[in-house]
Amino acid sequence: ISLLSSSLRAQLRFEICRPYIFTHPLFRLWTAMDASSGKRICVEAADIGYLRQQDDLFTAGTSTDKAYYVITGALMYSQDPESSAVESEEQTEVGAETWLSEASLWSHWTHVGTAEVRTPVEVLHLSASALASTLRRHPGIHEVALEYCKHFHRRIVSAKPPDALWPSDLQVPFTDYGDLVTSMKKEVQVSIGLSAIS
After folding, report:
1. Cβ distance 53 to 28 under 8 Å?
2. According to the UniProt entry, where is the signal peptide (predicted)?
3. Is the preceding omega at residue 162 within 30 degrees of 0, hence cis?
4. Is the pLDDT of residue 38 over 80?
């Protein structure tokens, strides 16, 4: 790979990461708005790693600026009353094609559970700081990102019983892409709509 030109290496990395990044509609949108931004996200903000059985992807109580996409394998996500707003220990199996810790892209996030590898895992790591740096380069994408971040963060802060579950590394209530887009300023919604039909 070191024999390839930097542009070919970037294209290769984009082709490797694209199927996983594109599972999230926001990244598809940004790439539709500007193809080079999609490529930069894969080259500068994404990395693929491998973990063995009984490794921890992350542990409760640790801060992070990374979101994760499980490509292959399985994990057990555990929460307990010492580190989470749960009454008793809870465990959830997490399989392939799952995003974890998306809240870390839009807030200062501390894991509220532990993700332990059950079967060997291939995982995409997405760095929030590198993503933010990449998104600042394109004004239209940056505007969408700021709006998305603002509304995602509001939902993190407001997610609490009895109206919603507490946020976790697996989900933040009411952060479905469509819900967030319909909360954005009208001009940003128009920009998103125009990108979707072009």
Report:
1. no
2. none
3. yes
4. yes
- Whether residue 198 is predicted with pLDDT greater than 80 in this model: the reply is no
Q: Can you give the residue range of the structural domain that contains 41?
A: 6-197
Distance (Å, whole) CA 139 – CA 30 = 11
Given a contact cutoff of 8 angstroms between Cβ atoms, the answer to whether 169 and 112 are in contact is: yes
For residue 170, the domain's CATH number is 2.60.120.10
Give me the number of domains the chain comprises: 1
HEC string of 122-153 equals: EEEEEEHHHHHHHHCCCHHHHHHHHHHHHHHH
Determine contact, residues 30/38, Cβ cutoff 8 Å.
yes
Distance of alpha carbon 121 from alpha carbon 65, whole angstroms = 20
Is residue 26 classed as helix, strand or coil in its secondary structure? helix
Assess contact for 21 and 41: CB atoms under 8 A: yes
Give the separation between CA 56 and CA 115, rounded to whole angstroms: 6
Q: What is the pLDDT of residue 6?
A: 84
Using the predicted structure, report yes or no on whether residue 1 has a pLDDT greater than 70: no
Q: Does 112 score more than 70 pLDDT?
A: yes
- Reference 57, options 87, 101, 16; nearest CA is 101
Give pLDDT, residue 143.
Answer: 95
**Per-residue pLDDT at 2 exceeds 80:** no
Look at residue 31 and tell me if it is in a domain. yes
